[in-house]
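Problem 12. The chain below contains 512 residues. Write out its predicted structure in token notation.
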Amino acid sequence: MKDHLILAIDVGTQSVRAILFDLRGNPVAICKDPLPPWQSPCPGWAEQDAGTYWEKICSATAGLWHNHPGLKGSVRGVALTTQRSTVVNVDRAGRPIRPAILWADQRTAQSVPKLSLHWSLAFRLLRLGETVAYLQSQAESNWLKLNQPLVWEGTYKFLFLSGYLVHRLTGNFADSAASQVGYMPFDFRRQDWARPSDWKWQALDMDPGKLPDLVRPGQMLGQISREAAAATGIPEDLPLVAAAADKACEVLGAGCLDPHQGSISYGTSASINMTSSRYVEPLPLIPPYPSALPGAYSLEVQIFRGFWLASWFIREFCPDQRLAARESGADPEELLDQAIAGIPPGSQGLVLQPFWSPGLRDPGPEARGAMIGFRDGHTRAHLYRALLEGLAYSLREGGERIEKRSRHKITELRVSGGGSRSARMLQITADVFNRPALRPHTWETSALGAAMVAAVGLGLFTDFKSAADSMVRIRDITEPNPESVKIYEDLYQSAYKPLYKRLKPLYKAIRL
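Solution.
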């Protein structure tokens, strides 16, 4: 068993990572290849040449074998996890016919398919008509049909990025049911394509033939093809096991299998998740997403831009930190962590609402970012600390909503994602939530979760609890500071929680 390795391929927004894990959850070897920045042909658009993702997989795996040639023979299977909600139009041969539209894209369809009278009336009575219309306007398929009809007519399959890469690896048009997060006619309760009578088919006017076959996590998507083996160096005929989308894998990789465990991710998008065996909508019409555990659900509240805000702040306001980081070899985030060390909890009354991108409901499509409480003594470092605190406030609010809807209390927090490398962010999280913040033994929790699904699917573990017991460990625990907890509790209750409701009319007034 000690010689069994799993190859996890993790395709994120900023890089592609190929990682070999052993059955103790140790990353035995890793090769990372950065992705170029996405392109914005028009304001608000986010596109990437889909072939670039495949090229980066090939270069990352080639680097892995080059640096560790003796490990290839120990690999028992492959798992793939990718960023969510990035879509690719392909022809019959699986070749992209336009750039991929990324999750960060903000284009909207100005005209959408009409729903039947039955569904229109039902949503109006439930006061969900505006939400459904917003969902329709956000659907990439509706935008493509309206603005690029020839592309849509030439689309043989309309795939998430995961489905496109599964085809490149195996030749099959298949995908994991746990990777279906986005604007597709997917039944989140059944975790399968929606039944013919479902309103989603009308809302998207989608041809079922354009969609891939779905399999549950842990089942086989296919085997590595001869062509893929030649391009990547992955041994031919190795099984590709269906895993899940990156957030779902991250929850599993953090060891959050039970409802009392909250998984916080400080990635490009920040989120708080709870694993549930029951279907519970965190908000009406906003479904729980598929968990990496077959048949389970991941209740999630997401801050769309999340820890991207830290990168944005550094890019726009911290040229000296960026220069110092280049000269010293440190990360700019490390230097800013040092800069905020002397700033007290609460940023001396500066409160930030991190809604740089709108949401569906609470915050809704009108939401904007806001910061209140400026005084002449505030510095750039105060702004950065307030940004980190605002993310923690927002995730606490989301966690409370999940607790209320699920009727489960979150008693344990596990924190992962790039932002979890910051000891300051961990302390802020522990203090805002007034709960210990536990950090797993590896930063690569998304890839680890994918490897765990593969290990169970291949029969190397009997179940997911056994896999978690063996492959997940806690590196360190950050305890809340009682004095900071009181400051944050007062600010959260008196300033942060009322802020969105009071600013909402103003957001609507300036909505363009």
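Discussion. The first strand starts at residue 5 and ends at 11. Students who got a different answer should revisit the alignment rule from Section 12.3.
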